[in-house]
Structure formats: C-alpha cells, structure tokens
Q: What sequence folds into this?
C-alpha cells in the first residue's frame, strides 16, 4: 500500500487493485467490498471524463479523499491498529461464515457512505458552499446503488437460488436496496452538513459520535428479522465457489451509462 496520501483517482484504482489481489490470495471476504468499490471508482472516473458531474476536478478530489478513508481503515485493520467502530464491525465479518456476499457489501457501504462520505464532502467543500456539492453527492450514490443492483444480478446468475428467493420474497430484496438508497441519500448528506458546520476543535467528538451511530446501524444488515434471516441463511448455503472466485465475479464491470 502507498505510504503517502493518494493524489489521483488512478492511484485509488491501483491501490484498490492491490487490496483485491491480497484478498483473492488470502480468501478474505473483505475483498467483496473492495471489488465493488473499485467498480464504483471506475464509473466515477468515466463519469468525470464524460462530464456526468457538475464539477469534474472537484469530484476527483472528493473521490480521492473518500477512498483514502476506506484504504486507511483497511490497512489499519490488517495491522491491528485503531480504526473507526463502523469499519471494525464491517471487517469483523471476514471471519464469520453466515453473512452472504450482499451483506458484506452493505456493511462496507454502511461505514463508507454513512460516515466517510459525509466527512469527505465536508472536507472538499471547506471555504466554499456545501450545497453546490449536493447534486454530485447524489450522483455518487446513484452510481453505487446501481452497482448493487448489478452485483445482485451477477450473483443471481452464479447462484440461481438467490434470484428465485429474492423474487419470491420481495421484502428481502427491498431491504437490501432500501438500505443502500435511503440511508446514503438522507443520513449521509445531513451528516455532511453537520460536519461541515462543526468548529475544528469539535470535529473529533462529532466524528466519534457519528461513528458510534453508524456502527449501531449494522443490526439492519445482520438481523433483518426471523424470516429474512432464514432466507439469507438459505442463500448462503447455496452459494458456490471460494471467496477468491466470488471476488472475481464481482470485478466484472460494464460500460458507463
């Protein structure tokens, strides 16, 4: 991993590739989110090149600040160093058998969107108007949520039982999608505003309070209810292939639209 802070979106993509390769080699389920996040970053890069965002250069700065928080957390977790509670909860799943791939992804999204994205948005807007970022903030979340749907479709092709179960039990499907959409767009933006207006000497306390709140949200992902738990357990039992093979499925990406 680079010792110096990342400066460009290409460096982010390269570093994520190193994390993915490490996880593939070690059959580490934390590589699921890394693979999804690299796809998001590639789409953001394409979006910048295609003028999808209001301010492309600002979006690259935001993307780098955003990614740096995830990469720092991943490195800290592997080195046994302190990290945020929300990321710790996500990485703790790496040693658990029962969470399905989508739950691993949503745990990563919980930490990264609901904590990290608000911080990065506030940082890139310092000395400017935060509201001018709102449209592009939503566009990042649109890219991420669209990729969650894409991943779900891809995994359904590998594990047919997943597609049948999600079609039969729409509530489980809704739970997965609604979690990524609603919390990302509402709670994360509100936190960006709060963090943006917090005096410098209170920023750490603000971060820690939000971190605890985000860490407490994991029950939505891990304990969605008795019926949903039974369905998810059935999905897990029908998953085939090694962790490395599943990460490989997640790395496939489609052209920007």
A:
């Amino acid at each position: 991993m680079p010792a110096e802070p990342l400066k460009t979106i290409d460096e982010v993509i390269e570093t994520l590739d190193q994390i993915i390769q490490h996880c593939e080699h070690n059959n580490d389920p934390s590589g699921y989110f890394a693979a999804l996040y690299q796809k998001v970053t590639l789409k953001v890069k394409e979006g910048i090149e295609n003028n999808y965002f209001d301010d492309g250069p600002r979006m690259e700065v935001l993307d780098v600040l955003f990614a740096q928080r995830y990469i720092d957390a991943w490195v800290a977790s592997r080195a046994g160093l302190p990290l945020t509670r929300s990321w710790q909860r996500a990485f703790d799943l790496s040693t658990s058998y029962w969470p399905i791939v989508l739950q691993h992804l949503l745990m990563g999204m919980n930490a990264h969107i609901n904590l990290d994205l608000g911080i990065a948005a506030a940082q890139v807007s310092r000395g400017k108007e935060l509201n001018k970022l709102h449209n592009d903030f939503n566009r990042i979340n649109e890219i991420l949520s669209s990729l969650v749907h894409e991943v779900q479709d891809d995994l359904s092709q590998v594990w047919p039982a997943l597609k049948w179960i999600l079609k039969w039990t729409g509530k489980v499907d809704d739970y997965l999608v609604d979690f990524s959409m609603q919390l990302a767009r509402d709670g994360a933006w509100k936190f960006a505003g709060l963090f943006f207006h917090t005096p410098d000497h209170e920023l750490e306390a603000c971060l820690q309070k939000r971190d605890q709140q985000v860490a407490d949200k994991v029950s939505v992902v891990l304990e969605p209810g008795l019926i949903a738990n039974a369905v998810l357990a059935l999905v897990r039992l029908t998953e085939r292939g090694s962790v490395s093979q599943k990460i490989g499925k997640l790395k496939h990406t489609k052209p920007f639209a």
About this structure: The chain has a mean pLDDT of 83.
